[in-house]
Design goal:
By secondary structure, this protein is of the alpha+beta class. The protein folds into 3 domains: 106 residues, Helix Hairpins (Orthogonal Bundle); 66 residues, Urease metallochaperone UreE, N-terminal domain (HSP40/DNAj peptide-binding domain, Sandwich); 94 residues, HSP40/DNAj peptide-binding domain. 36% of the residues lie in helices and 24% in strands.
Amino acid sequence: MAFIDYYKVLGVSKTATNKQIKAAYRKLARKHHPDLNQDNKEAEKKFKEINEANEVLSDPENRKKYDKFGKDWKHGEEYQQAGRQQHRSQQQGHQQGFSEDAYSDFFESMFSGGRGSFGQGRATQYKGQDYNTDLHLTLKQAYTSNPQIFTVNKKKIRITIPAGVENEQVLKITGKGGPGSNGGPNGDLYIKFIISNDTKFKREGNNLYQNVAIDLYTAILGGELMVDTFTSKVKLKIKPLTPNDAKVKLKGKGFPIYKQEGKMGDLIITFQIAMPTKLSNKEIELFKELQKIESK
């Protein structure tokens, strides 16, 4: 396998921080994503290299192995172990009169599939490369189940994203990564959700929060008010003398609970009293009368 400089792929230096690597990966992944470059083989190849580079360099252990072993980073531990075994065998061989060729055969059987006495003619199987990608959704899109199509290794993968996914949640799709070697299993595909909020609601877990303004008169005297939920409107009764920041919970009007069909979080409404910005002369006189009554 040809050596690929993953630092060069992401356009970062070998001293780059994890934050710099992550930022470079996201920028390039968006630019070369297959969904934005239909039938562009070069972009597809570049997207694959970007994911491979991120999978290695974003993981401290993988990055350490890559810096040390280069293209053989996946099998670095095996090489080290075999080297130690060879060294021990050589020491024993010198003591017992064995030849150097016997240990060369052993080392070859471990890594090239040769018929050494220990390798038994079978090459070691290795799992394929894991792929990582980001999927950007709006809060409205995350509210419902979403069919999505991904192109991986020139194959289209159709999946349905369940309603209720959270920001930076990671979904694992087994066996949809890079192909294994020597009959080993395929790698896995990891999808991280990046959810932007394009609504007036605030989401915390499965609950939604919304601030609703009510006028001074309704707060004092009570009344009715139409309030938006995420998908519809409901009529609320306002109690007389409702204080500022009073809260009302609407059960089941929040966000869908992930993979629990039919179950929903709650919507919490916070009332904020809007003070009048202009009063007529008559209103001012009435407020003065109320002030006199209150002071008695």
